[in-house]
Amino acid sequence: MKRNIYSAFTLFVFALLFIGCSGPTKVATTALIVPDFDFSPPSPAAPGSAGIKIGLIEPVYSGNFLFSNQTLFQQFRKNMGSDFEEILTARGYFLKGPYEVYDLMTYADKNECELGLDIEIDLDINQTTGGWTRFQPVYYQGGIVGGNYATYAGTLNLSGKITVSIIETFTRQKLLIKPKLRVRKSNGESKGSGFFPKTNKPFASF
């Protein structure tokens, strides 16, 4: 009788341990996407094997993009320029530059380069849902001690295109135009004067 009770007790304890170890059911969560705009070019060719020197001009935003001076989009533009530099080097081209603008290329540089690479970014952001919440400044003894910022919550549509042009370096005449169209829909949040939409990587290859 005692053996049966002991066996039943052992089975009961084992069942409790098994249930305890199984743990609660995990619910899948979506991780926040933080854009890093990092790109790794394909397997490189031998340096200079293409036998062509290209003058690289840093990407610029079209004149009607209002957020070009915001940190995220400045970083996007800078990293895109670095990606093009890596891509062209990996494909065996000699590079000159990058130049902040075309006008900074000297006569000698233009004469040395067979071609130039001109990149224009044309982006547009439209609010579809949500909106801004503004917090009035809080004053104390003549100074602002709180508030004085705004937050945005909702859905934004980020769309646009990147136009890559091969140019003749002296006249800047376009020899080849290759538009790269990318459309993204994302949620966005912003605080203060900064603008921080959460997106997937918007530019990956050339």
How would you summarize this macromolecular structure in one to three sentences?
The protein is an alpha/beta fold and 206 residues long. The chain is built from 3 helices and 9 strands, in the order H-E-E-H-E-H-E-E-E-E-E-E.
Structural topology:
Layout: H1 2-22, E1 53-57, E2 60-61, H2 71-90, E3 94-99, H3 107-112, E4 115-135, E5 138-140, E6 143-146, E7 149-167, E8 174-191, E9 196-198
Parallel strand pairs: 1-3, 1-4, 2-4
Antiparallel strand pairs: 4-7, 5-6, 7-8, 8-9
Keywords:
alpha/beta, two-stranded antiparallel sheet, 9 strands, elongated, seven-stranded mixed beta sheet, disordered C terminus, Double Stranded RNA Binding Domain, 23% helix, 206 residues
Integer average pLDDT: 74
Which structural class do you get from the secondary structure elements? alpha/beta
Q: What is the count of distinct domains?
A: 1
CATH superfamily: Putative neuraminyllactose-binding hemagglutinin homolog like domain
Query: N-to-C terminal Cα separation, in Å?
Result: 80 Å
CATH class: Alpha Beta
Shape summary: elongated
Number of strands: 9
What Rg do the Cα atoms give?
Answer: 28 Å
Give helix and strand order, one letter per element, not per position. HEEHEHEEEEEE
Q: Approximately how much helix is present in the residues?
A: 10-25%
